[in-house]
């Protein structure tokens, strides 16, 4: 009796309703992509999903079998490198993907190659993105690559690129160059869509401002837009034709969301048309005011 309640509590503490809902939606999107677009038209994606479909093409094995088996090493690596919680979400997502792939009937949606490449990629990206938002994963290539880079001295991106390049070369050799090119379109569409689903409107951007009216810009960002700033001491000038003319200046840096950046840039340029601004995408942040706000 006590053992049962302990297991039940453990499950509830790991899997929230939101995480389960996002995982299920993501798995269904991925299955629609694979069975409705990619397999009927002999299209592939990159990563473990692409390898699984390639095995299906060559050996006519149910694609759910290699998809589950190839992801299991990732679940183990996730357990060792990230933790039990993440491994549990990854395991659930992979098992659900195998089950839904086997039981959900999905008709061929289109025979048009361009539509298959684009919308197949969109649904793959939605699937991967929603599952990641739910705390799991259905394509473990990236973490496997991160684990391998310590052994072979290559970066994660280099390993992923090498594996995907191999996949696309095999497609070109066995299925034709046209299928390989369409599969590349599918892969990059999925990549962009999954990035957008994961980051969404919350994607953060670093905005840097160099202005002769630094105090005005500081006040605008902090007091009008309620944003924290970091100020570096720098030097402006040194222009072609007046290289020796230079002035000390404050370099103002703030972190804003994708939706806010245009509005803040517009306000800055209205306040000081001479201000120089540029933006940079941020891969990740930790600590500080921004992290605290995001966690809420």
Short description:
This protein has helices at residues 2-14, 17-38, 47-59, 64-81, 84-103, 113-133, 141-152, 156-175, 177-199, 214-224, 261-271, 288-295; strands spanning 204-210, 229-239, 242-257, 276-281. The protein has 296 residues and is an alpha+beta fold. β2 (229-239) and β3 form a beta hairpin.
Description:
With 296 residues, the protein is of the alpha+beta class. The chain folds into two domains: 2-200, no CATH class; 203-295, Alpha-Beta Plaits (2-Layer Sandwich). Helix content is 65%, strand content 14%. It contains twelve helices and four strands; from the N terminus they run αααααααααβαββαβα. Strands 2-3-1-4 form a four-stranded antiparallel sheet, covered by helices on one side. β2 (229-239) and β3 form a beta hairpin. The two termini are 36 Å apart. 32% of the residues are buried. Mean pLDDT is 83; it is low at 1-9 and 291-296. InterPro entries: DUF2179, N-reg_PII/ATP_PRibTrfase_C, UPF0750_membrane, YitT. This is DUF2179 domain-containing protein. Keywords: Cell membrane, Membrane, Transmembrane, Transmembrane helix. It holds the Pfam family YitT_membrane. It is a multi-pass membrane protein.
Let me know the number of strands: 4
Report low-confidence residues grouped into runs of 5 or more. 1-9, 291-296
Structural class: alpha+beta
Overall geometric form: elongated
Total tally of structural domains? 2
Name the strands of the widest sheet in spatial order. 2-3-1-4
Order of helices and strands: HHHHHHHHHEHEEHEH
Radius of gyration: 24 Å
Number of helices: 12
Task: Give a short account of the largest sheet.
Answer: 4 strands, antiparallel
Termini separation (Å)?
36 Å
Provide the residue-averaged pLDDT: 83
Fraction of helical residues: 55-70%
Strand content: 5-15%
Pfam families: DUF2179, YitT_membrane
Subcellular location: Cell membrane
Membrane topology: Multi-pass membrane protein
Keywords: Cell membrane, Membrane, Transmembrane, Transmembrane helix
